[in-house]
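The passage that follows is intended for readers who have already worked through the single-chain material. We present the inputs for a multi-component assembly, then the predicted structure in tokenized form, and finally a short commentary. You are encouraged to pause after the input and sketch how you expect the pieces to fit together before reading on.
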Amino acid sequence: MFDSLSERLGSIFERLRGRGALEEKDVAEALREVRVALLEADVALPVAKDFIARVKERAIGQEVLRSVAPGQQVVKIVHDALVETLGGAGQDAALDLAMAPPAPILMVGLQGSGKTTTTAKLALRLEKREKKRVLMASLDVRRPAAQEQLRILGEQAGVKTLPVVAGQTPLDIARRALEAARLSGFDVVLLDTAGRLSIDEQLMAEVADIHALARPIETLLVVDALTGQDAVNTAEKFKARLPVTGVILTRMDGDARGGAALSMRAVTGAPVKFVGVGEKLDALDAFDAKRMAGRILGMGDIVSLVEKAAEDLDLEKARRQAKKLAKGAFDLDDLAEQFRQMRKMGGMGAILGLMPGMGKMKKMVDAAGGFDDREIKRQEAIISSMTKAERRKPAILNARRKIRIAKGSGTSVQEVNKLLKAHRQMADMMKKMGKGGMKGLAGQMMGMGGLGGALGGTPGVGDPGALLKQAGGGEAQGSDEIDFDALEKALSGRGPMPPGLGGPPGRKK
Amino acid sequence: MAKTFLSGLFGRKKPEEARTDEPAPAEAEAPPPATAPEKRGIFARLRDGLSKSSKKLSEGVASIFARRRLDDETLEELEDLLVSADLGVAAAARTTAALARDRFDKEVSEQEVKEALADVIAASLAPFEKPLVVDRARRPHVTLVAGVNGAGKTTTIGKLAAKFRAEGLSVMLAAGDTFRAAAIEQLQIWGERTGAPVVARAVGADAAGLAFDALKRAQAEGTDVLIIDTAGRLQNRRELMDELAKVVRVLRKLDPDAPHDSLLVLDATVGQNALNQVEVFREVAGVTGLVMTKLDGTAKGGVLVALADKFALPVHFIGVGEGVDDLQPFSARAFARALVGLDQDDETKGEAA
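Having made your guess, compare it with the prediction:
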């Protein structure tokens, strides 16, 4: 979602980086542009001003201008300031649930910010990851069918919801929810409230009453990432009435430039804990300020990608596969498995968006019509139409078999051939990589990049695999490959972000 | 001095001030409950909504005696304040430039600056102040309603249905949001409230097929207006936008001119992303007009000014509350005055100053 802001900043910084010596006015000029870029990204005005002031002070105060690579230094300062604004490193996204159960969590926000969907997502996350027993209750007696909506979402997520009793007030419902949660031994009770305007005194008093009654351990403000300057007003008004302990930003999968994400911490003083990144119920990610800063500056989000992979991939299966790959055996079953995993991770577009230096490539692909993830399904269909023997040994595929497969999958022989060719190329690549000693997850990921050939059906994108390499090399990394060492370090939690901005963003506190 | 002068202009407190300042006493006097809204004029509603937060300051601190030279520094601060009303950098710069053209370096009062700004903004919005006209010759007149998630589409449709019903038109609703949980139920409740039949299918059904059926049925029954709800979608989700394009395509099989109105619902809190929204939705769903919802909050919806500059699309309605009659025709002048925190009835005072 930060593509546009990162592009703007990127072009500003490119000019700075290229310069041997910088004068104060160069920095000032660049910062003016940064300011406009921030405002156009809907960063709250006071936050943008403060940000610029901080960067300016440091850029001029630190003898940056006389250093060897002043441009790089300025970029680094901006990066650090971004991390601070987003909430600083080491901020804990985890919810504080340390109390005798049931722990009440109160969800508040404006109408249409996405509270109900987010409540269900959060409940699912708590059940799935933290193994908590969660009860959800809708206190929204205003919007037609709001309670029904939460009930349905609960069914979809497999999370219990408090049975709806018509005619109850929000306070009644809250009381009943707490009671029910206590009696039935739930760990967490999520209270979804009606959307309210921050200036609606009656409703703000109501939510304050609910807070007083439920004494929630977390009060989460749900904010739409598409919000403009009003984010400040909303946050301030809610904070004035409720001790907001965290923020959840929704619709981060949109193409808003993410100003709200940048502003929220500064305005509320409360950390952004989660971000909503899609319509599906598992599309709720933990928020990490440092990674987000990296993404804004176009460094990609390889850590998110790896985490996503680690979570979504079946590790055991991946290991088995990696072993097989190392031996150079990569059959069509393996390819089908790759397709499945790609889809699980949100499709090619989502994967690309997370990879460092892929911003440019993603744009090229989007310009060419984007990745059509239905294409992946078609490829899967082709493989599904093969017999087991054919999948293990594609060499036995003759013309007759191909015609049968094409018919069975509703495709054409040409498409079957294309898939087979892509598979051969990938198998070759895997073999090479196997020798190179790449293993485990890294191998998996490279495999995804190699899928390019199979996706050749997308018009104008001849071979995304090749593009991938090209774009990866063209960016700041200056190497042809993604740096897996850095990746592994980042994964283990010790190392810095992957390279990109002339060195790790050395954090000081 | 400069600070109070200008913050009075738009009334948003500086964050530092806000922090030391506990819930303002002015807020403690509870406004009329939203559940039982009394009938008030559009100006009163708009003003209540748009300038509630700004009133205290603009009335109190910045007094009418404060006069100040309209120099570069002042203009820059003005521009900042317009930016914080979501006009965006370009539209804010254009607006202040227009203000500077005939008033630069003159002594001005707060009231004068507000009036002048409102005039500039109203002038740029006036051409887009167009009511939604139902062509009674068409049966049905098809209105498609689209927007991102949570913009207020379904609620807007409920209000629109009530409005058309009050005008004596027969209305049919198509529950085209087959994705979001309980969206169909929500529209059905609006159907009951307004006496409009609702065409619905199960959750997960094909929205285009549903729209087709609804139009067919409305044609058969000779309904005056068919309003089609759609699922909220972010404009960068290509597959969802394709789905919306399909709804339009399918409608045109039955009526080549349908939809006769394609409304994009925008939430007043939206920032500069509204520009992307309009651009993409216009391309995909042939948006013919805008509706801005939730103007009864603190959000001022200033992005409309930027949208007018760029797309020149009519603004049909604004939503100023949750009640059935809280959908009002868009008035450029009222909107502009509320945006800068002017009372509607101050007009004469302003001229005199």
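Commentary: The longest helix of chain B spans residues 42-59. Chain B touches chain A through 66 residues (CB under 8 Å). How closely did your sketch match?
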